[in-house]
Amino acid sequence: MDSIPQLKPSKPPFLPLLFIASCVLRLLIPSPLFESRHELSTPLTSISRLRECAWMWNHGVEVYDGDMCHHAPGVVLAYSALGRILGGRWWESGLWAGIDIWGGWMMVKISRSLRLQGRQRDLRGRDLVVAAAYLLNPYVVLANLAHSSSSLTNVLQLTTLYYALDLQHSVSCEVVLACVGTVLMGSGFHTALTVVPTTVMLTAPNWRLFMGFFLAAFMLAGALIQHNVFPGYLANVLIAPLTSNVDTSPDTGLWWYFNTQIFDAFRDFFTWVSSLHLLIYVIPLCIKFGSTEQQRQQPMILPTALAGIVAAFGTYPSPSHSALPLSLLSLSPTLLPYLTHPFLTLLTLLFSSILLPVFGELWLGRGSGNANFGWAVGMVWVLGQMWGIVDLVGAGVRVGWDEEGERDGERRRGERAVQI
Questions:
Q1: Is 183 left (phi over 0), alpha (psi -120 to 50) or beta?
Q2: What is the spatial distance between Cα 401 and Cα 420, in angstroms, rounded to a whole number?
Q3: How confident is the model over 223-249, as a mean pLDDT?
């Protein structure tokens, strides 16, 4: 009996050149031009806030005493240590370029894991496509040039997805530690909405064991950080962005303008609503795309949809949050023919991406506009993301409809699928 040949991942010759060119691109463009743009970084991810936190830590000032610092303790400690060892800021561009290179490599590893498990055809050049979808994504590049900490958050989420996918149906130390580290080093609640449900679905039927280990490790790590290193960590990093409006600086989302217009007595309540309403999307998506057969055929639909929802409706968003679902879409090539209005979605995102800095300059730079300018184009930006999410979910339903027909011996391709 002939043995089945082992599937080997393709190695395009241009893949190393892509990584080198991406690194050079990020090092040549001067980053100070982008660091102060409110469209690219938020009070929770700004490099200026991170520098202030590192200065406070180096001079013995309580980092989380007040509303200045909302970065994760690990980020503050790493940045502070590198600043003391290397001195100056010349190393920042290299560090952020390395973070993006790590993210591109994780995309390649996820793509190879999908092919080795038989979920994708072994097309030569697939590694190059998925790496380019991340490294050359304009939103990824702009967030990197702005030195936003969301670049690290995106890479940590990709790392967690890789371990959860590579070690599917099993609970290992790598999966638990990657998930806990991503939540603690990222933006807490919003990061957990993407990685925790996805990891739970991928570790089924051992998801109860994973949740037990995850919750135990998360509470232990949070308690150690809270009591031994940073006393205000839990309140300022994990809780404050959800329960109180820590900053009303303009961003690309919907909630900052709304919070400036309501009475102060109602502001905390609506901050709760705008933060926690994201939970209502998680359970339906997990039920639909977390089923055994659907998860086996299209495992990347769920994390892509959840990341898109967080980027569109989360508090303190930026284009760097939208970069993750756009990049993850390249890992589901079978979905692309099922998208009904991708051209309209791309045009809306392009249109709003051009108008965001233009209207921001008219309002904040020249003073010839007002806050309605920024919020109006932000609504268009969110609308484009909403269309993309709806189109993605609809494409996933149609793919499942066709694959179910093929298993039953029916030909359903081209027929309309209605989800009730």
A1: alpha
A2: 13
A3: 62
Could you count the other beta carbons within 10 Å of the beta carbon of residue 56? 19
E strand map for 24-153? none
Residues shown for the chain? 420
Query: Going by C-beta distance under 8 Å and a sequence separation of 6 or more, which residues neighbour residue 196?
Result: 179, 183, 214
Tokens representing 160 are 């967690």
Contact indicator for 271, 244 with CB cutoff of 8 Å: yes
What average pLDDT does range 301-327 have in this prediction? 91
* Cβ proximity of 99 and 155 under 8 Å: yes
Residue 31, helix vs strand vs coil: coil
User: Mean pLDDT for the chain?
Assistant: 80
The reported pLDDT for the residue numbered 39 is 86
> CB–CB of 244/66 below 8 Å?
no
In 293-367, DSSP assigns E strands to none
pLDDT tens digits for 157-208?
998 888 888 765 455 566 666 777 677 666 677 888 888 888 777 776 666 6
Question: From CA 61, how far away is CA 417, in angstroms rounded?
Answer: 59
Span between the terminal Cα atoms of the chain, in Å? 48
| Dihedral Cα 356, 358, 363, 365, nearest 10 deg | 120
